[in-house]
Amino acid sequence: MAPILQRLFGLFGAHSWIHDTNIVVRHYSPNLPNWPEDLKLRIAMLSDFHFSEPWIGLQALEAIVEKTNALKPDIILLVGDFDDGPLFSRPVPYDDWARGLARLQAPLGVHAVLGNHDYPRLIKKRHGFLAAPAAKVALEKVGIPVQVNDAIQLTWSGKSFWLAGLGDQCTEFNDGTPLADLDATLAKVTDDAPVLLMAHEPDIFPEVPARVALTLSGHVHRGQIRFFGFAPVVPSNFGRRYLHGHIVEDSRHLIVGAGLGHSGLPLRFDAAPEIVLIELGGQA
């Protein structure tokens, strides 16, 4: 019965069960002022899994991994929200989905940040965690590094760049201090090589300096449920300003992916699950 419902839903642009035929590959080739033309980099960005059965379980993950690997990216970025499925769902064990993600393949590896659904809303200890979030433990157990207000330098084709990962912006310490610290994150950048910033929520973008070549976000699911192209509910302080796609403000660049899973209701309408492919460098 489920395959029949899947096809019926798909006719109307609705997606509850995530599978290989309804995952879109969204392609961008932005011309970034702070990215060298001779540094060609192929990025696959995945976000907002919200692993849960029956909507986005291990079978769906297998399709996502296969489709992503077929794109032959140089680096794969996971931009948060692995945990906390929608209503009417069953959780997928952390170790199971982490082992699935470990099958992603790219020469520069797979890198992650966490999202708001991967943390309790308040972190109980100001200087460090009482316990690492379960999603972070699971990812690092299979060799996928998770950045929290940190930046690492990578080398590709003989040139270096920085990959920075911001802590989640919806999460606070119990004294009210936000977990996300953009200044501390960018302070880890110690030379003039270009910077990519992973930030689960796009709301940080107005504060991101021009020093950052490109900010990569998810979180808003392209509205998840849209009517005639209009998203009535968007989880952002800026409304639909950072809803989806390639956004340029004051020569600063942001790409927001639609994500893969569901939050709240197990339904995506006119907001297909997507893998984002970004090609940098070499623009005419």
Task: Outline the fold blueprint.
Layout: H1 2-11, E1 14-15, E2 24-28, E3 41-46, E4 52-53, H2 58-70, E5 75-79, E6 90-91, H3 94-101, E7 110-113, E8 122-123, H4 134-141, E9 150-156, E10 159-165, E11 172-173, H5 182-186, E12 195-198, E13 214-217, E14 245-249, E15 252-256, E16 268-269, E17 274-280
Parallel strand pairs: 2-17, 3-5, 5-7, 8-11, 10-12, 12-13, 13-15
Antiparallel strand pairs: 1-16, 3-17, 4-6, 9-10, 14-15
Helix pairs in contact: 2-3, 3-4
Outline the structure in words.
This protein is of the alpha/beta class and 284 residues long. It has one domain (2-280): Metallo-dependent phosphatases (Purple Acid Phosphatase, chain A, domain 2, 4-Layer Sandwich), CATH 3.60.21.10. The chain contains five helices and 17 strands. Helix 2 (58-70) packs parallel to helix 3 (94-101). It is globular, with a radius of gyration of 18 Å. The relative contact order is 0.22. Mean pLDDT is 90; it is low at 4-12.
